[in-house]
Amino acid sequence: MNWIEKELEFLADASLERSLRTSSPVSEAPGYTVREERRLFNLSSNDYLGLSGHPAIIEAMREKLLTEGAGSGASRLVTGNRPPYHRLEEELAYWQNYEAALVFANGYMANSGVIAALVGRGDVVFSDQWNHASIVDGISLSRAEHARYRHKDMPHLRALLHKYRDKRRKLIVTDAVFSMDGDQAPLRELVALKREYGAMLMVDEAHSGGIYGKHGEGLCHELAIQNDVDIHMGTFSKSFGVYGAYICGSRTLIRWLVNKARPLIYSTALPPAVVAGVSEALVVVQGEHWRREKLFALSMLFRSLLGASGFTIGEGDSPIVPLIIGDNDMALRFSGALEDEGIAAAAIRPPTVPDGTARIRFSLSAAHTEKELRDAAARIRNIGLGLGMVKP
Ligand SMILES: *Cc1c(COP(=O)(O)O)cnc(C)c1O
């Protein structure tokens, strides 16, 4: 086992070692987190709409906990398929305007299980190089050919579609909004290419569900292309503020997944209280439009403040705002300085992002206020000045 210590030393020397630290929420101050007894302004959570502390959601979970118990006790195909599932899946299909929906324990399991259920040896998956790790792992599990196209590069995708045109089944898969840059996939072009080459199209709305679309349906609805997306995936762990994930598609697709998606078959169903909490979160996501509006206003403000200070930030309107630094060690120093200034934001380093693009990934929430963000932006500017990254 000695090799592990050596490898760990190598990681630590390259400023690439990760470690677990405990954070606890602050119930009376939803935009904050407490780490090592210090209260930090939380710019690193995916609770975009600020729902993790929503009283109606918590109450729905509490009620169900008292009547249905703590755990579900079995896989959904055995005795774990409790009543809240059916209701939630009907509501999801209606919200997304698909024939059917299927809930999974989390996004990682949904992506890996669904891809492996749809393709296998002799097939090919066309996947954006910056797609989420759960998609990449699903492709490995499936044993299909992995045709990775350069980020959002449609001519490259077209060339690969042509090259693999004789494969049995073809699946194009993409994040709708990319998790580390907050930029959007070229969904309209993807739809055109999928049609031209007779491929299936799967879109992961983990960072766009709840945020885009009139009722928070996601980016596909916002662009009115959802009818061309064969497999729509979303999570409940980000904008919904709870936990879990879902797939929407045709009745046939869902029937197939119930038979073939191994993470659904061989893993215990979500606790019923979680499923009930998600149902309540779905009501809030659809109804409380002000959360989306506030989030976009905050995102625009924060982006313009950082840009005016001279930082390089990602483009777009997403609440994911990457501040690109480049060097791994510098990114760690920046994130340490942020913590000293009372701000929690993660340094994201390779292999999560490409070499030479280490960054601070800020993520905003409707739980934040304009004043808090202005204060944070001023402190971030000072750190940039101190590290010689921006000019006075
Ligand atoms: C977070 C994320 C997932 C995984 O979802 P979990 O529910 O956290 O397992 C999948 N895809 C993308 C793009 C994500 O950002």
UniProtKB/TrEMBL annotation:
Keywords carried by this UniProt record: Acyltransferase, Biotin biosynthesis, Pyridoxal phosphate, Transferase
Enzyme Commission number, as recorded: 2.3.1.47
Residue ranges constituting the Aminotransferase class I/classII large domain according to the UniProt record: 40-380
SUPFAM superfamilies noted in UniProt: PLP-dependent transferases
Coiled coil listed as a keyword: no
Annotated GO MF terms: 8-amino-7-oxononanoate synthase activity
Protein name: 8-amino-7-ketopelargonate synthase
Species: Paenibacillus allorhizoplanae
Gene designation: bioF
